[in-house]
Amino acid sequence: MPENATEVTAAGIARLAGVGRAAVSNWRRRHADFPQPVGGTETSPSFALRDVEDWLRAQGKLAEVPLRERVWQELAGDPAGAAAALVRVGCVLALVREAPAEWRRLAGRGDGELARRLPAALDEVLAPRLSADHAHPAVPVASAGQLLPSVGLLRGAADLAGELGAPRAFEFLLGRYLDANPRQYTLTPPDTAGLMSALAGVCDENATVLDPASGTGSLLCAVERSGALYAQESAPELAALTALRLVLCTDPGTAHIAVAAGDTLRADAFPRLAADAVLCHPPFNERNWGHDELAYDPRWEYGFPARTESELAWVQHALARLRPGGTAVLLMPPAAASRRSGRRVRADLLRRGAL
């Protein structure tokens, strides 16, 4: 098998062939020439995608695979990992959307030359869209050596953009990635994100909106009009996905976009920001939010939150980043309204009209 070849699981083989997973298990037992595992574990092996396709084709078992399924399988089996591959795909989709002629010119070259020229082309598209006014940019452009093993995937993603449009292609692949990792991420449902945006009353093309715990960027993507979108996320891969979603869901020149990777409570990337609105779905029940280090932080205007009250720390962070008269909308667990450890902070929020 070539080094860095795309791998596929038994479930992926089943989708390629249009059968159930039990059929794949039967093929492995009954056919001595079925491709051998090249990775994974004993209970969940992975196989070289190209070898599997060749075997299925020879057996007459290869179903007509939709382009979107083929691209997803390549992304899921990318040697860099699905998250890193999705970020690289998002970068290329931004290039396809904003500089289609440049992509066509590059795509006509061989794989090695394409990989060599892509970093500069991607940087030329992304740099003007993503502000560099903070210390931790969210989308570092991959090098030629990093891109080369994924060139087939990137070409396929560009073809998928031709079918669906670049934004929809990215949303499809992101959705498949999140569905495949349901326990790894906490998501904000689209309807909830839309409601929170409406409650914030963001309808001004000059408005500044912040999400200090952006996840995959759903809340900011729900903002219909704004002049500036700011986001911070502690997980670097999610910060990158947020940035790329915002690039793909907004038109060039319509919104200033600044996304940072880092721990918001401990290392705020936008300490001087005075936003018109803050939208936030913070992590719930987080004990390690910085209680010991942040005891004298000026953000605790309404009282120092207890170690068990991370949500009230996020509330006060949101309020600290608002301009006078601005609005913060946070998605909170019901317990945050009744825990005894937070009653003093809640009382002060109510007494002073912040809540």
Automatic annotation (TrEMBL):
<dbReference type="GO" id="GO:0008170">
    <property type="term" value="F:N-methyltransferase activity"/>
</dbReference>
<dbReference type="GO" id="GO:0032259">
    <property type="term" value="P:methylation"/>
</dbReference>
<dbReference type="Pfam" id="PF02384">
    <property type="entry name" value="N6_Mtase"/>
</dbReference>
<protein>
    <submittedName>
        <fullName>N-6 DNA methylase</fullName>
    </submittedName>
</protein>
<dbReference type="InterPro" id="IPR003356">
    <property type="entry name" value="DNA_methylase_A-5"/>
</dbReference>
<dbReference type="InterPro" id="IPR052916">
    <property type="entry name" value="Type-I_RE_MTase_Subunit"/>
</dbReference>
<keyword id="KW-0808">Transferase</keyword>
<dbReference type="GO" id="GO:0003677">
    <property type="term" value="F:DNA binding"/>
</dbReference>
<dbReference type="InterPro" id="IPR029063">
    <property type="entry name" value="SAM-dependent_MTases_sf"/>
</dbReference>
<feature type="domain" description="DNA methylase adenine-specific">
    <location>
        <begin position="168"/>
        <end position="348"/>
    </location>
</feature>
<keyword id="KW-0489">Methyltransferase</keyword>
